Amino acid sequence: MSTAQDGRDGRGAAGGSPSRRRVLGAGAGVAAGLVAGGAAQPAAAASGGWRTVPHRGLRPDDPDGRGPLANPRRGFRYEMSYNAVDLTSPWDNEADHSPDVTKTLETLEREYGPGANLTQLYFYLWDFATREIPRSALDNIESVLRGLRAKGYAAVLRFAYDDGVRAGQKYTVQDIQRHIGQLAPIVARNSDVVAVWQAGFLGAWGEWHGSYYQHENYPDAVTAIMTSLVAALPPGMHTQVRYAEKRDMITNRAILDRVGFHNDYITLGEGLWDYYVPDNPGWPRYLEVGPTHAMDGEMPWDKGQSADPYAWSTVIPGLAAARRLQTLRWDSLSIVHNATVTVPGWKAAALTEDQVRDALLPVSDGYFRDRDGRAVSRTQFEYLRDHLGYRIEVRRARTSVRSGRLEVEVDLVNRGFAAPKEPRPVRLVLLDDAGRVVTETDSGADWRGWQPQGRSETDDDHTGPATYTVRGSLPLGRGATRLGLALPDPRFPGRGRAVRCANASVRWVNGVNVLASL
Questions:
Q1: Segments in the chain below pLDDT 50
Q2: What is d(CA 116, CA 191) in angstroms, rounded to the nearest whole number?
Q3: Which of 176, 160, 165, 93 is nearest to 122 (CA)?
């Protein structure tokens, strides 16, 4: 028997609502303990038959406190583009491109710096726009996805015909549907490395403007394409369109729970093509969809990267960008775009705890404090990197032995910009000294209900995120020495990436967040 919070039905933690209390500051209530695995293990306290182990968030002087905490389907991303026919680049001067995925990713890491575990992945189908995709090209696509897996990356996946260089192709709705049918098995087999399958296909770069037959402007065509795409999505995966008005064209309302947004021109309302602004007619839709649907985007290229007239070479303010992305519950953002202007500006701009609090943005436990409680400045780049999407922090674990079983309660908060968007089991496990699972139980919790604090550009409650409680009961198996929380990939638990909590006092053992010793 186990019970758990389910934030999607409004009930919060089993047996009560999630609390809206302000969490204590860094290190409050945490006693110094033994050091194991590079992290201080807090001392446990007993009360009313329950043993409580408190936990704290990552601080800058913790071993993992300055680097990126790589977690699946969130954070910064790179960008890669391939012609499906032969894995060449659609552009002749693509210096960071190689048919070898490992080489391409290593080049991107060197050029744009570490901190991403996602990449936008374009496949151009220009050669097959009006006929079947041959087996050789399908094999090419799958080989790239295997390469991402080998490097620990996932894809924001998009297929397109028109690359803005070659003449636009005359594909029909039926051509697109045929290709979706061919691609669906590949995406299903590799869904552990596909974060989202964007709508794509229509227009230049798959951005839904300028296609030969203007299918993107006709509700019947839009509905037919999107219905086929959603039907092809693996369980739990979302798709995305660029504009609110395109999503509103879909007359098959039953599929809208799988359709989020991507903004391909983030400038905070400057310029002509950023429609994700409060005075745009689509703003209410972006606010409505963001909390529960996958959200991705990129800034425009800057003039050091592109001679195109839409290039943007003014630094986009990092704190204002954080407010906009947090308001719209953003999951992932390109650091390849505007990489010679805005991204260096973010890396050079100091950010303090007071600035973040004044901006009504989340402050992770200990994020701006060292172990002695002294204030530490961060950069705008670090803050965005660490808070895009979800950021799960354990606050405390409580255990009690009753009739040969371990009763468990785990309190946690989400300090990120967004709730998780994909389903994932929330399991309580017991490990032995070697890190092997002795016994486990699925708590039944739906982590998609772990909402972060209120949206900074709205009149939401800004007092801080709710605390959610995961509960479970486990038999005390032979050799069990440690209690853990596991958030594995539901489709491929053996090869998919698990979620790591943002705590220095929580050890990471074989994909399990170790919360307490028994």
A1: 1-40
A2: 19
A3: 160
